[in-house]
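Lay summary

Proteins are chains of building blocks that fold into shapes. Our project writes down both the chain and a compact code for its shape. Here are two examples, one after the other.
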Amino acid sequence: MNLKPFQWIVAVMATAAALSGCERPPVDAVQVGFRGTGMELVYNPRTIADQVALNTAPAALPEADKSGPRAGAVYKNLKVLGNLSVGELNRLMVGYTQWVAPEQGCAYCHNLNNFADDSLYTKVVARRMTEMTLHLNATWKNHVAETGVTCHTCHRGQPVPNKIWFKPDDSKLAKGLLGQRNGQNEPAASVAYSSLPKDPFTAYLLEDTRIRQISQTALPQGINGNGSSIQATEATYGLMMHISDGLGVSCSFCHNSRNFSNWTESPPQRVTAWHGIRMVRELNNEFMTPLTKVFPESRLGPMGDVAKVNCATCHQGAYKPLWGEQMAKSWPELRTTPPARVVRTASSGAAR
């Protein structure tokens, strides 16, 4: 085949583009499901090496003295952590600075002339996030187990976590195209740059929408009976793409691909994920959304809503946040019993 120089250039560029989405060897496969089912995770050691810095937890500070007066008896306006000793509270505050605002320091949340002052919105938010962390470690062990969480699990040394979400702009006109986007048909990071519905979070991680399963009846009963329509299928796939991308795993991490809907043939991770979806839904309804009026307008999304959490907020590409680093074990201050006002009961309207 005789190609002219410019044709060779085009051919080389086309080949490079075709291979740009591929990863060169070596790769490792890890069995995560039942033997003989091909339920494996394929990892690239080079990609994991690039994630080491992001998923390395800072060294814990020396343990504080638990004796002595309670912090609530010494400091003013201490509404959540007053049961800690003064030493424990000060240790935790240093940890907060390290996890959330290493550059800004104490001034990020506190009026340095009056630490009891609540005029900074960041202090009000930090207090509620402390309650959220206590609540997670105490009541969501069916998802976080004994590993637990700290502020660093999400923040990773930044005032705002890398992975948060807002409700997208509800504009229905396609950009540069005729017709409507119908909330999809444009590559979106929220669904791993697929053309699936780009907001898989509002319905499933804020509202209590039933996640679609395979219909047990023939159409049209399937559509009318349990919502198993093509549209519901696409929405479910959008959520699954987010979970896959957020955890850095494939479908077989939680599902047996020979029978996706069968719980008895699914690995234990599916149960953990089931609890995780409900945990995230509760966090968004009980802790994040009520803070909407606390945040300044500049911190709200295009639809005026507050930042919310999803699976990637904690996991950030790792199947276990920080690859299972048990940070909370080193921070007993965040494993105490949360205040009674932390979360509403189901009878008062808490998210299910």
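And here is the second example, written the same way.
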Amino acid sequence: MSIWSQTKELAAATPNERNRYVDFLRAVSILVVVTGHWLVVALYYRDGSLTPGNLMSVRPATQWLTWIFQVMPIFFIVGGYANAVSQESARRRGVGYAGWLGARLHRLVTPLLALILGWGALAATLYFLGVSGDVTRLASRTALIPIWFLAIYIAVVILAPATYIAWQRWGFTSFWAFVALAALGDVAFFAADLKWIGWSNYLWVWLAVHHLGYAWRDGRMGSPARLIIYSAFGFLALLLLMVTGPYPLAMVGSPDGTLSNTTPPKITLLALGIFQFGLLLAIESPMRRMLSGLRLWAATVLVNSMIMTLYLWHLTVMVIIVALAYLADGFGLGLDPGSLEWWLTRPIWIAFLYAVLIPVTFLLAPLERRGRTAHAPVPAAARQVGGAILICLGVALLALFGFGSSPLPGLDIAAFVAVIAGCGFSGLLPGIK
């Protein structure tokens, strides 16, 4: 039986009470991120030299596109909804925090571990082949960009039971508390020049966005008309922050190399999330009717069954393709980024990368779908949290610096070891309980 036939059977058995729009938004948001990453890469090959670049830096007029392609707020909102549902289910079944956390970490970390092991092995191979550490660092940093998300999302998941209790007890007051902390983080970052406090917004901004998923789950977001008003306020807030504040236009990266809305996160991401989410939630009812059809829902189920694998490996696939093109005398990389010819070839570029990524994803996705053994012992909650913190630390360092030429000797090795040790400590390595 084909994968599509199996998926349609699984989709047909979906309970009617499931909110299929949540899964649809998760799938679409990840596909938008993947496509956006491939689109903004602006590589230029000439006379045997490959110049890496970013479309937003090469063509600053394109920075407005990031208001469309920056959809991580949607993914965190969807995550909030899903974490609320899973906690409710765990409570009904009498599953405690350790059991709940173990299941969530297993789904997130297993595909991540495969990527880290793969790049660790590749980096070691390149080292012994005499490849420059700077080359390895550039390639690995590019490929490992997606893992920054897991470093913070795992932390949000660890805190989810506590934040969900806060939501159930205080409702939107708890949301506004996180918003206030995020705003104070920006004030410290810009006005007081306390950059280290601003980095705490990796928690406050994303916890606030995640909270909106709780509000959605509880039906607290209001009617479509009210959602459109929320969206309009989010858009106006975003414009005001751009015009009157120190915030840049681009919602992804740092095109001018000096300031970023994402590193660390700023309250602009909150405004963007409300703007996007208000519009998307306003059309929930017609979208849920569309998703009642088998074909669209089955496609959604298929993407969600391998979503982390697809997301984590998409830039690795691109790096490999670019390396092969470079070795082929820059084949396909000689167009001036942002030129008419360059834009006309983008659909071909993106379609080709999907054609390579899809079989890779099918090959590796079984790791993601493999659940914990039903009777496997569940490590203590403290042990899982400690291991997860190690994983987050190692992942954050690898996302920042990659493998190869590190700012400190052996930092990449230490980060790699931290991820592996964290997985072992949390009981996420095969054979370790």
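What can we say about the second shape? The chain has a mean pLDDT of 91.
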